[in-house]
Design a protein that fits this description.
Blueprint (H helix, E strand, L loop, with lengths): L13 H12 L4 E5 L2 E7 L3 H11 L17 H4 L4 H10 L2 E8 L14 E6 L3 H7 L6 E4 L9 H8 L12
Antiparallel strand pairs: 1-2, 2-5, 3-4
Length: 171
């Protein structure tokens, strides 16, 4: 099984941003504080990391993942912006609004849940916005279902590899 390690990063310095960026670039999952709680994030352009995100969160493959951005200027890299999207972003970002737009072809079908649309939020947390700002690949965030409130301990448990039963001694 895959080993799970936890490294707490203080979101108050460039070192934390560099560490989180390096972890995402290496295909690791990162827990982020987003509007309304916590989210597990992966590099949106790393198909293996996205598949692992689906696996550890037990998310249905037809349930698309939002691609977290740093600001409206980042939309053009992952989706096709519209004038209405610009107006809504100007009025409500950063914040809990997620725009639904047609995705660019570079976004894998896994992220889009097999469809053509993409959810793009810009959270209020400055650290997450800096992490998601181009030229870095944007992280993909996953929020647990409302019936399971998002908490850091639950996400840590989800990221850990499943426990393996002890191997019985040879007969």
């Amino acid at each position: 099984g895959r080993r799970c390690s936890v490294e707490r990063l203080q979101a108050d310095g460039h070192g934390a941003l560099a560490s989180a960026t390096a972890l995402l670039a290496a295909g690791e999952l990162v827990i982020l504080a987003i509007d309304g709680g916590f989210a597990l994030a992966a590099d949106a352009l790393n198909v293996d990391a996205v598949e692992r995100l689906f696996l550890v969160t037990e998310r249905s493959a037809d349930n698309p993942l939002p691609v977290v951005l740093g600001g409206f200027e980042d939309i053009q890299h992952v989706a096709f912006p519209t004038p209405l999207a610009r107006a809504l972003a100007d009025a409500f970002w950063p914040g809990p609004l997620t725009l639904i737009l047609r995705a660019r072809p570079l976004i894998s079908g896994a992220v889009k849940g097999g469809g053509d649309l993409l959810g793009v939020p810009v959270p209020t947390d400055a650290f997450v916005r800096h992490l998601a700002t181009r030229p870095r690949p944007p992280p993909v965030a996953h929020s647990p279902a409302p019936t399971r409130p998002p908490t850091a301990p639950r996400l840590l448990a989800a990221a850990a590899p499943p426990a393996r039963p002890p191997t019985p001694p040879p007969p």
